[in-house]
Design brief:
The complex is a heterotrimer of chains A (380), B (380) and C (383).
Chain A: H1 7-23, H2 26-35, H3 40-48, H4 67-80, H5 82-89, H6 95-101, H7 104-116, E1 121-124, E2 140-144, E3 147-158, E4 165-172, E5 176-183, E6 189-194, E7 204-215, E8 219-220, H8 226-262, E9 264-265, E10 268-269, H9 274-302, H10 308-333, H11 343-357, H12 361-373
Parallel strand pairs in A: 1-4
Antiparallel strand pairs in A: 2-3, 3-7, 4-5, 5-8, 6-7, 9-10
Helix pairs in contact in A: 1-4, 4-5, 4-8, 5-8, 6-8, 8-9, 8-10, 8-11, 9-10, 10-11, 10-12
Chain B: H1 7-23, H2 25-34, H3 40-47, H4 66-79, H5 81-91, H6 96-101, H7 104-116, E1 121-124, E2 140-144, E3 147-158, E4 165-171, E5 181-187, E6 193-198, E7 209-220, H8 232-235, H9 237-268, E8 270-271, E9 274-275, H10 280-308, H11 314-339, H12 349-359, H13 367-377
Helix pairs in contact in B: 1-4, 4-5, 4-9, 9-10, 9-11, 9-12, 10-11, 11-12, 11-13
Chain C: H1 7-23, H2 26-34, H3 41-49, H4 68-81, H5 87-101, H6 104-116, E1 121-123, E2 140-144, E3 147-158, E4 165-171, E5 181-187, E6 193-198, E7 206-217, H7 228-264, E8 266-267, E9 270-271, H8 276-304, H9 310-335, H10 346-358, H11 363-373
Parallel strand pairs in C: 1-4
Antiparallel strand pairs in C: 2-3, 3-7, 4-5, 6-7, 8-9
Helix pairs in contact in C: 1-4, 4-7, 5-6, 5-7, 7-8, 7-9, 7-10, 8-9, 9-10, 9-11
The chains are: A alpha+beta (380), B alpha+beta (380), C alpha+beta (383).
Chain lengths: 380, 380, 383
């Protein structure tokens, strides 16, 4: 047993914290959140410093580290600002699929530019509001010669208006479920932006595809593998979302602590009231538990022994802790917490958006129960 | 003892719902988005005798009881909490003290026009350094000639930028902490009164919230509530009690709105091959919401009835506020989590219910303060 | 970073589990509850032969030089089996202060005996108010020419009736400072000591012990005068985390039993586990269990490796106290009415959970510690 970061991990954590706390300007965060724009220059800087794709192999522009180091980075970023941190963490979703199942050529064409901060990638899997419900997908991509012709609709695509490429799940009549890397500038793609209440620096949108042509070189892996790609992607995303949750909760907690130690009411500091101290202690315990679940999940992933049930537990607990901690942190700020000038106000909204990424409690419990009791155990 | 509203009260509920749906509902989306209060509603609702509901008929008021007021508040908050906030200050904190402690002159000049919606009122107690600790306010009202000179800063003031008059709490005798406070009516055009800024908030977007400054603002003695110096906080006791009870209705209203939204969503949305409403876990959640709303509604109306009998203590009012403002959190939160991605859309009211509902644990005594008030009421 | 056990540790865990499954089945636990001693000398001897009592001691004292991490593995299995008896009180509350504070002579006099299973020990820590604050200890140790005379009353002393020695913290000066406390090893058979059984929810036997001018020879003072406070502070994290480990093992067992029951019990023509909400309750328990595991194991690792751990220990206990309560409550809900009867074994775990929640500080106690460690000034320090 060993519950400490290695020296190398400590270096990564320190570097990420220095960057985030040094560069994530609070006023910029408020401005970007209000206008719904992404943190462009911070994204470029983060890429330059090697934070984007920290877990990609070196030959494809990464640092060759593990998902654990990615988790540490995301945690540090979201701690400094929930919005900027999350935006920087989600510039490359979908890369996982290429990294695990793609060809060398695809990794060179797509992964390297992501690590450089030159391009963004996203995923287009879900066709309903429920990101995990893949039971009624209808997007098809018919193969004709060396091209696929893609038709269908994808919903709630993250970074819909910003991503250069979308890893898209579709069905080819003969090949079965496949994933295609769709380039945004192809003819026949329509993007319908949706305004969000939280994580506003990561715009949403619905995509519709009408006879969009995709080269065969853009198919990832082989026919019939589509669902496996999606499953893998969800696992990695789940872990990184847990890191977002952890960092956001930590950031909310730090701010609440700071406020409690200096705000005076009734002649005493808030931190001297037992009810407030216990709230803060509660929050600290919850964060610590979520932290170790996340670190354990990440460690297991890097060791090649990812446990689905444990990951579901991690996501669920991270989501629960996030919402509870941010809510209490806002309460400690009192009226101020409700005002948009305070960071905690957008931490609250961002927390609810991160929550959605992690899956609902009911879904995660269903997933856990399926593993415990078997897939068909619920009887009508 | 009653367990049901009587026919008259049920008709009243039906009548106000119709009026609010006709006059208020069409304005919600626009004014929430613009983060502005629809000031025209004061005259419109004034014409329908739906302002200052408990103001006696001799001042032109509807002369209704607390139970009826709660019915109207519940119905209005079901449609929009933000708009509700502005309307309730008009009939509550801004004018109640004038009704109970103001001279006939003041009632004629401010109360009756407020009833008709011709003048908009606000109430200013909270300051940057005095939130929960109301006695800690620093605004002074020092004798000057035939009146008082007010100096100080107020914050989180509802109707702050749109009011024609504001009932302000200030120390006439700063040496007597808590007891040396008086209430004054300041008019918008009084020299020395200014609106510093409008505050943007997490929710209640259509409610106008501002910071106000009093800079050597002269107020004639006639505009002081009461004849004697001191006792201002005591003058607020009944109003605070009444306002805390009303929070029960506010919470019930937004809880009801969230519940209706999620019921409808659960019935029409399919996941994993069946309507959401068939999932046992979802049914449990909906059952708990229904139970919560029943309890909140019962607590509120019982509290209102006690108030009408002259039997409600501050402890009773605090119990209603604490119970209802806390219970509603789970309802608005679960509504969000069940809706997942679609809950994050700005054009979906559920995110508004979450952010609006979140406020209720803070004003007119945070939940933490309510705990202490109840404990004190137990003689501890 | 590594979260699992290595090969040796896994073997220790499996062997401990196998041993206790044979030697400490649930019927034995029930028998010991009724039994006045609450402890089986033959089983005690077998445990000593396995080296458990001396696990933490150096070889020269008859021990095997193991770590707290090793002990925690055994404690987890003991919790799982609801092992009755004075192991915890002897090894942790007795053995640790002697190891840390005693001189060579004292260690030679006691440690080998403990390791062999010849000596049973306990500690009389709490006084009438039931608090753990050293500041509040009122018992007095008055010096005599060749020793001390102890006066005081202690509550919740586990297994005092069968202990050979009771370690008693007492004040050697009439001051309110914690360095005024000394730890005395008192012969449990002293005539002027009154030991009265307490009827408690705890599965352990608890006693109310009054010391009336009980003589303690000079060489039964652990270390020197005024060192008692420090010795208690040193054993405290081991005791708290040790308790968390026992709770973790028991929680795991409750979880397994309940999932099993849910799959067997049928209503409405199908097993309980076919209902989504019951599945969700089981998932809830699984979650609380995994959370308890990581937070407890973190504390174990820190204590075992000598890292500063005050906050982490408090977090582990605060969490575990609540988690076990939740798991036990959920389990009871799934079992239904039968779970309330002695037909099922769940009630034993419920009692264990309750006692575990409270001993060595409940959730609020430890939250206060966490708050202090985060530099939030409290109104009054507990220690």
């Amino acid at each position: 047993m060993d519950f400490q970061l290695s020296d190398e991990q400590k270096d990564v954590q320190r570097a990420a914290r220095e960057f985030a706390q040094g560069e994530f300007d609070p006023d910029l965060a408020l401005e970007l959140d209000q206008s719904g724009k992404p943190p462009e220059s911070l994204w470029k800087k983060a890429a330059q410093l090697g934070f984007i794709g920290i877990h990609y192999p070196e030959e494809f522009g990464g640092q060759g580290m593990g998902l654990f180091e990615s988790v540490l980075t995301i945690e540090a970023f979201c701690s400094a600002d929930s919005g900027i941190g999350s935006a920087l963490s989600m510039v490359d979703i979908g890369a996982e699929v290429i990294l695990k199942f793609g060809s060398k050529d695809q990794k060179e064409r797509f992964v390297i530019p992501l690590a450089k901060g030159a391009k963004r990638m996203s995923i287009a899997f879900a066709e309903s509001e429920d990101g995990q419900d893949l039971s009624s997908l209808s997007t098809v991509s018919e193969r004709r010669g060396n091209e696929y012709f893609l038709c269908g609709e994808k919903r709630f695509v993250l970074n819909a208006t910003l991503a250069d490429w979308f890893v898209t799940l579709c069905k080819e009549p003969k090949e079965g479920w496949i994933t295609l890397i769709v380039e945004r500038d192809r003819e026949g793609i329509n993007i319908h932006p949706i305004e969000k209440m939280g994580l506003r620096m990561i715009p949403f949108g619905d995509l519709d595809f009408r006879e969009v042509r995709v080269d065969i070189e853009n198919r990832i892996g082989n026919g019939g593998e589509g669902m496996a790609h999606v499953h893998h992607c969800h696992q990695v995303m789940g872990l990184r979302s847990a890191a977002q949750a952890l960092g956001t909760a930590q950031g909310a907690f730090d701010r609440a602590m700071g406020h409690a130690k200096q705000r005076i009411q009734f002649g005493k500091k808030l931190s001297q009231f037992q009810a407030i101290r216990h709230k803060l202690a509660d929050m600290a315990v919850d964060i610590e538990v979520a932290r170790w679940l996340t670190y354990k999940s990440a460690t297991e992933y890097d060791q090649g022994k990812m446990d689905s049930k444990f990951l579901s537990i991690t996501q669920l607990e991270a989501g629960r802790t996030l919402v509870r901690v941010v809510d209490e942190a806002l309460q400690i700020f009192g009226g101020y917490g409700y005002i948009a000038e305070q960071a905690i106000e957008h931490y609250f909204r961002d927390a609810w958006a991160i929550r959605v990424e992690l899956g609902t409690e009911e879904e995660e419990k269903d997933a856990i129960a399926k593993i415990m009791f078997g897939p068909d155990s619920i009887k009508k | 003892m009653f367990y049901e509203l009587n026919d008259e009260q049920n008709s009243f509920r039906k009548k106000v719902r119709e009026i609010y749906e006709r006059e208020v509902s069409p304005l919600v989306e626009e004014y929430e988005r613009k983060e502005t209060f629809p000031v025209q509603l004061f005259r419109i609702l004034g014409a329908e005798h739906l302002l200052c509901l408990r103001c006696p008929k001799e001042y032109g008021g509807p002369g209704l009881d607390k139970v009826s007021e709660c019915i109207a508040v519940e119905e209005l908050n079901r449609i929009c909490v933000g708009i509700g906030a502005g309307i309730m200050v008009q009939g509550g904190l801004a004018t109640d003290p004038i009704l109970h402690f103001g001279s006939e002159e003041l009632k004629k000049k401010y109360l009756s026009p407020a009833v008709r919606g011709e003048k908009i009122g606000a109430f200013a107690l909270t300051e940057p350094d005095a939130g929960s600790d109301a006695s800690g306010i620093r605004t002074t009202a020092l004798k000057q000639g035939k009146g008082y000179r007010l100096n100080g800063l107020k914050t989180f003031i509802t109707n702050g930028t749109i009011c024609d008059f504001v009932t302000v709490a200030a120390y006439t005798d700063p040496a007597r902490r808590g007891t040396g406070i008086n209430l004054f009516v300041v008019e918008r055009d009084d020299p020395g009164f200014s609106v510093i800024k409008k505050l943007r908030k997490l929710g209640n977007h259509s409610s106008d919230t501002a910071e106000l400054a009093f800079d050597d603002c002269y107020v004639p003695k006639e505009r002081m509530l009461g004849e004697e110096e001191g006792g201002g906080l005591g003058q607020l006791e009944e109003t605070l009690k009444s306002g805390r009870l009303t929070y029960g209705a506010r919470s019930t209203g937004v809880g009801q709105a969230a519940f209706e939204a999620i019921l409808s969503y659960a019935k029409k949305t399919r996941r994993q091959g069946q309507p959401l409403s068939k999932s046992q876990a979802i049914r449990f959640i909906l059952a708990e919401m229904a139970m919560s709303i029943e309890a909140m509604r019962y607590m509120t109306y019982r509290g209102a009835w006690l108030f009408d009998q002259g039997l409600a203590s501050m402890k009773d009012a605090s119990i209603v506020k604490l119970f209802c403002s806390e219970s509603v959190q789970s309802i608005v939160q679960k509504t969000m989590t069940i809706q997942k991605n679609s809950g994050l859309r700005m054009d979906n009211p559920v995110q508004r219910f979450l952010c609006d509902g979140r406020l209720s644990k803070i004003p007119e005594g945070t939940s933490e303060i309510q705990h202490l008030v109840i404990a004190a009421g137990l003689g501890l | 970073m590594e979260f699992g056990l290595n090969q040796e540790q896994t073997i220790l865990k499996n062997e401990t589990r196998r041993f206790l499954k044979n030697e400490c089945p649930i019927d034995f636990v029930k028998e010991m509850i009724e039994d006045e001693k609450g402890h089986s000398p033959p089983l005690w001897k077998k445990m000593a032969e396995l080296g458990w009592m001396g696990l933490l001691f150096e070889e020269k004292y008859g021990g095997i030089g193991g770590t707290f991490l090793d002990l925690s593995i055994i404690l987890e299995e003991m919790g799982r089996a609801l092992l009755p008896g004075p192991f915890f009180s002897t090894v942790i509350l007795g053995g640790v202060p002697i190891t840390q504070g005693g001189d060579e002579e004292l260690k030679q006099r006691f440690l080998p005996g403990i390791a062999k299973g010849d000596i049973i020990m306990t500690m009389a820590l709490t006084e009438m108010e039931g608090s753990y604050a050293i500041d509040e200890i009122k018992s007095i140790g008055e010096p005599r020419s060749d020793g001390y005379v102890l006066r005081g009353r202690k509550m919740f002393v586990p297994y005092a009736h069968i202990a050979d020695y009771i370690i008693c913290p007492a004040r050697t000066y009439q001051q309110g400072h914690s360095n005024g406390i000394s730890l005395f090893i008192v012969d449990a058979k002293s005539e002027t000591m009154n030991i009265i059984p307490l009827i408690s929810l705890d599965l352990q036997k608890q006693f109310d012990v009054t010391f009336t001018d009980v003589y303690v020879p000079q060489n039964n003072l652990i270390g020197e005068e005024k060192q008692g406070g420090k010795l208690i502070q040193n054993v405290w994290p081991i005791a708290v985390v040790g308790r968390c480990c026992e709770m973790l093992g028991a929680m795991q067992r409750v979880f397994e039993m309940t999932v099993d029951y849910a799959q067997k019990r049928r209503q409405f023509g199908r097993p309980l586990s076919a209902f989504q909400v019951i599945q969700h309750y089981c998932a809830d328990m699984a979650i609380d269990l995994e959370c308890s595991k990581v937070i407890t194991h973190q504390a174990v690792w820190r204590v075992s490796n000598g890292h500063p751990s005050t906050k982490e220990v408090a977090m582990a206990k605060a969490w575990s106290s609540d988690a076990f309560k939740k798991i036990a409550t959920t389990a009871h809900q799934i079992y239904g009415a039968i779970g309330f009867t002695k037909d099922q074994d769940l009630y034993l775990y419920f009692r264990f959970a309750k006692a575990g929640e409270i001993t060595f500080g409940d959730t609020n106690f430890h939250k206060e510690v966490v708050a202090r460690e985060m530099d939030l000034q409290g109104v009054k320090a507990l220690r």
